Amino acid sequence: MAHQSNQGGVAHKGRGATFDPHHRYAPTTSEPVDDGWWQEEAPTSLATEVREERTRSALAWNTSPDLPFDRSLNPYRGCEHGCIYCYARPSHAYWDLSPGLDFETKLIARTGLVERLRDELCRPGYQCRPINLAGNTDAYQPLEARYATTRAVLELLLECRHPVTLVTKGGLILRDLDLLRALAKQRLVRVMVSLTSLDTELKRSLEPRAASPSARLRVIRTLAEAGIPVGTLVSPVIPGLTDHELERLLEAAAGAGATTAGWMLLRLPREVAPLFEAWLDTHYPQRTNKVMSLMRQCRGSEVYDSRFGKRMRGEGVFAELLEQRFRKACRHLGFNNSATSARQQLDTSSFRPPRAQGNLFE
User: Model pTM?
Assistant: First the structure.
Protein backbone atom coordinates (compact mmCIF):
# COMPACT_ATOMS: atom_id res chain seq x y z
CA MET A 1 0.00 0.00 0.00
CA ALA A 2 1.37 3.41 -0.92
CA HIS A 3 1.15 6.18 1.62
CA GLN A 4 1.16 9.78 0.51
CA SER A 5 2.29 12.65 2.70
CA ASN A 6 1.28 16.24 2.43
CA GLN A 7 3.52 18.51 4.46
CA GLY A 8 2.07 21.69 3.02
CA GLY A 9 0.43 22.56 6.31
CA VAL A 10 -3.25 22.45 5.27
CA ALA A 11 -5.69 23.20 8.09
CA HIS A 12 -8.71 20.88 8.08
CA LYS A 13 -11.89 21.92 9.86
CA GLY A 14 -12.18 20.21 13.24
CA ARG A 15 -8.87 18.36 12.86
CA GLY A 16 -5.51 18.81 14.53
CA ALA A 17 -3.05 17.33 12.03
CA THR A 18 -2.30 19.22 8.83
CA PHE A 19 -1.01 16.20 6.88
CA ASP A 20 -0.51 12.43 6.95
CA PRO A 21 3.16 11.57 7.49
CA HIS A 22 4.46 8.20 6.36
CA HIS A 23 4.47 5.77 9.23
CA ARG A 24 7.62 3.81 10.00
CA TYR A 25 6.21 0.46 8.84
CA ALA A 26 4.94 1.61 5.44
CA PRO A 27 6.37 -0.66 2.70
CA THR A 28 6.31 2.17 0.13
CA THR A 29 6.15 5.95 0.22
CA SER A 30 5.13 8.62 -2.25
CA GLU A 31 5.52 12.36 -2.55
CA PRO A 32 3.11 14.80 -4.23
CA VAL A 33 4.53 16.39 -7.39
CA ASP A 34 3.02 19.22 -9.41
CA ASP A 35 3.04 17.80 -12.95
CA GLY A 36 0.94 20.58 -14.43
CA TRP A 37 -2.30 18.63 -14.53
CA TRP A 38 -5.29 20.28 -12.88
CA GLN A 39 -6.64 18.53 -9.83
CA GLU A 40 -9.62 19.31 -7.67
CA GLU A 41 -8.79 20.86 -4.31
CA ALA A 42 -8.84 18.41 -1.42
CA PRO A 43 -11.78 18.91 0.95
CA THR A 44 -11.02 20.93 4.08
CA SER A 45 -13.55 18.91 6.11
CA LEU A 46 -12.78 15.23 6.68
CA ALA A 47 -15.35 12.66 7.82
CA THR A 48 -14.68 10.17 10.60
CA GLU A 49 -14.50 6.51 9.60
CA VAL A 50 -14.91 3.71 12.16
CA ARG A 51 -14.10 0.05 11.82
CA GLU A 52 -14.55 -2.65 14.43
CA GLU A 53 -11.86 -4.98 15.73
CA ARG A 54 -12.55 -8.09 17.76
CA THR A 55 -10.60 -7.88 21.02
CA ARG A 56 -8.01 -10.57 21.71
CA SER A 57 -6.86 -9.23 25.08
CA ALA A 58 -8.33 -6.47 27.22
CA LEU A 59 -5.55 -5.35 29.56
CA ALA A 60 -2.26 -3.80 28.43
CA TRP A 61 0.62 -4.19 30.88
CA ASN A 62 3.66 -1.99 31.49
CA THR A 63 6.66 -1.86 33.82
CA SER A 64 7.47 1.82 33.29
CA PRO A 65 8.79 3.59 36.41
CA ASP A 66 7.27 6.82 35.02
CA LEU A 67 3.69 5.57 35.29
CA PRO A 68 1.61 5.20 38.47
CA PHE A 69 -0.18 2.10 37.11
CA ASP A 70 0.92 -1.25 35.70
CA ARG A 71 -2.18 -2.04 33.64
CA SER A 72 -4.49 -0.09 31.38
CA LEU A 73 -7.44 -0.63 29.11
CA ASN A 74 -8.23 1.21 25.88
CA PRO A 75 -11.70 0.86 24.31
CA TYR A 76 -10.66 2.66 21.10
CA ARG A 77 -7.65 3.02 18.81
CA GLY A 78 -7.10 6.49 17.44
CA CYS A 79 -8.85 9.51 18.94
CA GLU A 80 -11.30 11.94 17.39
CA HIS A 81 -10.29 14.65 19.84
CA GLY A 82 -7.45 15.28 17.39
CA CYS A 83 -4.98 16.77 19.88
CA ILE A 84 -1.97 17.58 17.71
CA TYR A 85 0.53 16.79 20.48
CA CYS A 86 -0.86 13.34 21.36
CA TYR A 87 1.99 10.95 22.21
CA ALA A 88 -0.23 8.01 21.15
CA ARG A 89 -0.30 9.02 17.49
CA PRO A 90 2.62 6.74 16.47
CA SER A 91 0.67 3.69 17.68
CA HIS A 92 -1.62 3.99 14.64
CA ALA A 93 1.26 2.71 12.52
CA TYR A 94 0.63 -0.80 13.90
CA TRP A 95 -2.59 -0.86 11.85
CA ASP A 96 -0.91 0.47 8.68
CA LEU A 97 -2.44 3.90 9.29
CA SER A 98 -0.78 7.29 9.49
CA PRO A 99 -0.21 9.00 12.85
CA GLY A 100 -1.48 12.21 11.20
CA LEU A 101 -5.01 12.70 9.96
CA ASP A 102 -5.64 8.94 9.98
CA PHE A 103 -5.19 8.89 13.76
CA GLU A 104 -8.14 11.23 14.25
CA THR A 105 -10.36 10.23 11.31
CA LYS A 106 -9.87 6.46 10.91
CA LEU A 107 -10.80 5.02 14.28
CA ILE A 108 -11.01 1.46 15.55
CA ALA A 109 -13.67 0.39 18.05
CA ARG A 110 -12.73 -2.72 20.00
CA THR A 111 -15.65 -5.13 20.28
CA GLY A 112 -15.97 -7.92 22.83
CA LEU A 113 -13.77 -5.95 25.21
CA VAL A 114 -15.93 -6.41 28.30
CA GLU A 115 -16.16 -10.16 27.78
CA ARG A 116 -12.38 -10.44 27.43
CA LEU A 117 -11.88 -8.28 30.54
CA ARG A 118 -14.24 -10.51 32.49
CA ASP A 119 -12.22 -13.56 31.47
CA GLU A 120 -8.91 -11.91 32.41
CA LEU A 121 -10.17 -10.81 35.82
CA CYS A 122 -11.18 -14.42 36.51
CA ARG A 123 -7.79 -15.93 35.73
CA PRO A 124 -6.22 -17.84 38.63
CA GLY A 125 -3.58 -15.74 40.31
CA TYR A 126 -4.90 -12.39 39.07
CA GLN A 127 -3.77 -9.69 41.52
CA CYS A 128 -6.02 -6.69 41.88
CA ARG A 129 -4.46 -3.28 41.31
CA PRO A 130 -6.10 -0.18 39.77
CA ILE A 131 -6.78 -0.30 36.03
CA ASN A 132 -6.09 2.94 34.19
CA LEU A 133 -8.89 3.72 31.72
CA ALA A 134 -7.52 4.61 29.21
CA GLY A 135 -3.73 4.83 28.96
CA ASN A 136 -3.41 5.55 25.26
CA THR A 137 -6.46 7.37 23.83
CA ASP A 138 -9.37 9.06 25.58
CA ALA A 139 -12.08 6.65 26.77
CA TYR A 140 -14.62 9.51 26.54
CA GLN A 141 -13.91 10.66 23.00
CA PRO A 142 -17.04 11.26 20.85
CA LEU A 143 -17.11 7.63 19.66
CA GLU A 144 -18.03 6.54 23.20
CA ALA A 145 -21.49 8.10 22.78
CA ARG A 146 -22.20 5.49 20.07
CA TYR A 147 -20.52 2.39 21.51
CA ALA A 148 -20.76 2.98 25.30
CA THR A 149 -17.87 0.55 25.85
CA THR A 150 -16.38 2.65 28.64
CA ARG A 151 -19.66 2.60 30.51
CA ALA A 152 -19.91 -1.18 30.14
CA VAL A 153 -16.37 -1.53 31.52
CA LEU A 154 -17.25 0.63 34.53
CA GLU A 155 -20.35 -1.49 35.15
CA LEU A 156 -18.21 -4.64 35.24
CA LEU A 157 -15.62 -3.07 37.53
CA LEU A 158 -18.35 -1.93 39.93
CA GLU A 159 -19.85 -5.41 39.85
CA CYS A 160 -16.60 -7.04 40.95
CA ARG A 161 -15.41 -4.13 43.12
CA HIS A 162 -12.28 -3.46 41.09
CA PRO A 163 -10.56 -0.04 41.42
CA VAL A 164 -10.10 2.15 38.35
CA THR A 165 -8.42 5.46 37.50
CA LEU A 166 -9.53 7.72 34.67
CA VAL A 167 -7.84 10.54 32.75
CA THR A 168 -10.01 12.46 30.30
CA LYS A 169 -10.62 15.75 28.55
CA GLY A 170 -14.10 14.72 27.42
CA GLY A 171 -17.32 16.10 28.86
CA LEU A 172 -19.10 12.80 28.14
CA ILE A 173 -17.80 11.43 31.44
CA LEU A 174 -20.72 13.14 33.18
CA ARG A 175 -23.08 10.68 31.49
CA ASP A 176 -21.64 8.04 33.84
CA LEU A 177 -22.01 10.06 37.02
CA ASP A 178 -24.21 7.37 38.55
CA LEU A 179 -21.54 4.68 38.15
CA LEU A 180 -18.71 6.96 39.24
CA ARG A 181 -20.63 7.95 42.36
CA ALA A 182 -21.27 4.29 43.23
CA LEU A 183 -17.59 3.44 42.67
CA ALA A 184 -16.48 6.40 44.77
CA LYS A 185 -18.62 5.28 47.72
CA GLN A 186 -16.52 2.10 47.83
CA ARG A 187 -13.18 3.92 47.23
CA LEU A 188 -12.85 2.38 43.78
CA VAL A 189 -12.33 5.37 41.49
CA ARG A 190 -10.15 8.44 41.02
CA VAL A 191 -10.49 10.86 38.08
CA MET A 192 -7.98 13.27 36.57
CA VAL A 193 -9.25 15.90 34.14
CA SER A 194 -6.64 17.08 31.66
CA LEU A 195 -6.22 20.85 31.27
CA THR A 196 -3.92 22.34 28.65
CA SER A 197 -5.03 25.94 28.20
CA LEU A 198 -7.80 28.33 29.20
CA ASP A 199 -7.51 30.02 25.80
CA THR A 200 -10.57 28.88 23.84
CA GLU A 201 -9.15 30.06 20.52
CA LEU A 202 -5.92 28.11 21.05
CA LYS A 203 -7.88 25.02 22.09
CA ARG A 204 -9.85 25.02 18.82
CA SER A 205 -6.77 24.17 16.77
CA LEU A 206 -4.68 22.44 19.45
CA GLU A 207 -7.41 20.03 20.64
CA PRO A 208 -10.17 20.54 18.05
CA ARG A 209 -12.79 18.04 19.22
CA ALA A 210 -12.00 17.84 22.92
CA ALA A 211 -14.23 19.58 25.46
CA SER A 212 -13.75 23.32 25.92
CA PRO A 213 -11.79 24.63 28.92
CA SER A 214 -15.01 25.77 30.61
CA ALA A 215 -16.61 22.36 30.02
CA ARG A 216 -13.65 20.59 31.62
CA LEU A 217 -13.83 22.84 34.66
CA ARG A 218 -17.54 22.04 34.83
CA VAL A 219 -16.65 18.34 34.83
CA ILE A 220 -14.28 18.88 37.76
CA ARG A 221 -16.91 20.84 39.66
CA THR A 222 -19.67 18.30 39.04
CA LEU A 223 -17.50 15.34 40.04
CA ALA A 224 -16.27 17.10 43.18
CA GLU A 225 -19.82 17.99 44.23
CA ALA A 226 -20.83 14.35 43.71
CA GLY A 227 -18.10 13.20 46.12
CA ILE A 228 -15.90 11.67 43.43
CA PRO A 229 -12.13 12.16 43.99
CA VAL A 230 -10.99 14.43 41.16
CA GLY A 231 -7.78 16.18 40.27
CA THR A 232 -6.25 17.90 37.28
CA LEU A 233 -3.39 16.97 34.99
CA VAL A 234 -1.84 20.05 33.39
CA SER A 235 -0.62 18.30 30.29
CA PRO A 236 1.13 18.92 28.12
CA VAL A 237 2.89 22.08 29.16
CA ILE A 238 4.15 23.56 25.87
CA PRO A 239 7.16 25.86 26.33
CA GLY A 240 6.66 29.18 24.61
CA LEU A 241 2.96 28.54 24.00
CA THR A 242 1.09 27.45 27.15
CA ASP A 243 3.70 27.45 29.95
CA HIS A 244 2.66 30.95 31.07
CA GLU A 245 -0.77 29.52 32.03
CA LEU A 246 0.55 26.94 34.50
CA GLU A 247 -0.48 28.79 37.67
CA ARG A 248 -3.79 29.98 36.18
CA LEU A 249 -4.75 26.45 35.19
CA LEU A 250 -4.02 25.14 38.67
CA GLU A 251 -5.98 28.00 40.26
CA ALA A 252 -8.96 27.34 37.99
CA ALA A 253 -8.91 23.63 38.80
CA ALA A 254 -8.68 24.29 42.54
CA GLY A 255 -11.57 26.73 42.29
CA ALA A 256 -13.65 24.03 40.62
CA GLY A 257 -12.93 21.51 43.37
CA ALA A 258 -9.86 19.55 42.29
CA THR A 259 -7.72 18.38 45.21
CA THR A 260 -4.74 16.81 43.40
CA ALA A 261 -2.63 17.93 40.46
CA GLY A 262 0.14 16.76 38.16
CA TRP A 263 1.93 18.08 35.10
CA MET A 264 3.80 16.76 32.07
CA LEU A 265 6.05 18.41 29.54
CA LEU A 266 5.18 18.19 25.85
CA ARG A 267 6.35 14.88 24.36
CA LEU A 268 7.21 14.60 20.66
CA PRO A 269 8.04 10.93 19.93
CA ARG A 270 8.56 9.65 16.40
CA GLU A 271 6.06 11.14 13.91
CA VAL A 272 4.59 13.54 16.47
CA ALA A 273 7.52 15.96 16.12
CA PRO A 274 7.01 16.82 12.40
CA LEU A 275 3.24 16.90 12.90
CA PHE A 276 3.52 19.35 15.77
CA GLU A 277 6.04 21.57 13.97
CA ALA A 278 3.81 21.66 10.87
CA TRP A 279 0.89 22.63 13.13
CA LEU A 280 2.95 25.49 14.58
CA ASP A 281 3.91 26.67 11.08
CA THR A 282 0.23 26.69 10.11
CA HIS A 283 -1.36 28.25 13.20
CA TYR A 284 1.44 30.04 15.10
CA PRO A 285 4.30 30.56 12.62
CA GLN A 286 5.75 33.43 14.63
CA ARG A 287 6.30 31.06 17.58
CA THR A 288 7.69 28.00 15.81
CA ASN A 289 11.37 28.77 16.35
CA LYS A 290 10.91 29.75 19.99
CA VAL A 291 8.82 26.70 20.91
CA MET A 292 11.12 24.22 19.18
CA SER A 293 14.22 25.88 20.64
CA LEU A 294 12.83 25.61 24.17
CA MET A 295 11.87 21.99 23.55
CA ARG A 296 15.45 21.18 22.55
CA GLN A 297 16.71 22.93 25.69
CA CYS A 298 14.51 20.59 27.74
CA ARG A 299 15.43 17.47 25.77
CA GLY A 300 19.23 17.50 25.59
CA SER A 301 19.37 19.36 22.26
CA GLU A 302 16.87 16.92 20.66
CA VAL A 303 13.14 17.32 20.18
CA TYR A 304 12.47 14.21 22.31
CA ASP A 305 14.16 12.15 24.99
CA SER A 306 12.62 8.73 25.64
CA ARG A 307 14.64 7.90 28.77
CA PHE A 308 12.71 6.91 31.87
CA GLY A 309 12.76 9.72 34.40
CA LYS A 310 13.26 12.33 31.66
CA ARG A 311 10.50 11.83 29.11
CA MET A 312 7.65 13.18 31.26
CA ARG A 313 9.36 16.28 32.72
CA GLY A 314 12.49 16.97 30.67
CA GLU A 315 15.67 18.40 32.11
CA GLY A 316 17.68 21.60 32.12
CA VAL A 317 17.03 25.10 33.45
CA PHE A 318 13.66 25.65 31.80
CA ALA A 319 12.26 22.26 32.87
CA GLU A 320 13.50 22.79 36.43
CA LEU A 321 11.82 26.20 36.52
CA LEU A 322 8.51 24.63 35.46
CA GLU A 323 8.81 22.05 38.24
CA GLN A 324 9.55 24.77 40.81
CA ARG A 325 6.57 26.84 39.65
CA PHE A 326 4.31 23.79 39.79
CA ARG A 327 5.39 22.82 43.31
CA LYS A 328 5.03 26.38 44.59
CA ALA A 329 1.53 26.72 43.14
CA CYS A 330 0.50 23.35 44.57
CA ARG A 331 1.66 24.35 48.05
CA HIS A 332 -0.23 27.63 47.77
CA LEU A 333 -3.43 25.94 46.58
CA GLY A 334 -3.27 22.95 48.93
CA PHE A 335 -2.85 20.31 46.25
CA ASN A 336 -1.34 16.87 46.88
CA ASN A 337 -1.12 17.10 50.67
CA SER A 338 -0.83 13.96 52.77
CA ALA A 339 -4.43 14.09 54.03
CA THR A 340 -5.78 14.24 50.47
CA SER A 341 -3.53 11.42 49.34
CA ALA A 342 -4.72 9.23 52.19
CA ARG A 343 -8.39 9.90 51.36
CA GLN A 344 -7.84 9.03 47.70
CA GLN A 345 -6.16 5.67 48.27
CA LEU A 346 -8.15 3.10 46.30
CA ASP A 347 -9.38 -0.13 47.86
CA THR A 348 -8.01 -3.35 46.33
CA SER A 349 -9.08 -5.63 49.17
CA SER A 350 -12.77 -5.92 48.20
CA PHE A 351 -12.21 -7.33 44.71
CA ARG A 352 -14.13 -10.47 43.80
CA PRO A 353 -13.73 -12.16 40.41
CA PRO A 354 -16.87 -11.42 38.36
CA ARG A 355 -18.03 -15.02 38.13
CA ALA A 356 -17.99 -15.26 41.93
CA GLN A 357 -20.81 -12.72 42.09
CA GLY A 358 -23.40 -15.42 41.58
CA ASN A 359 -22.23 -17.59 44.47
CA LEU A 360 -25.23 -17.90 46.78
CA PHE A 361 -23.08 -19.04 49.70
CA GLU A 362 -20.75 -16.01 49.61
Answer: 0.89
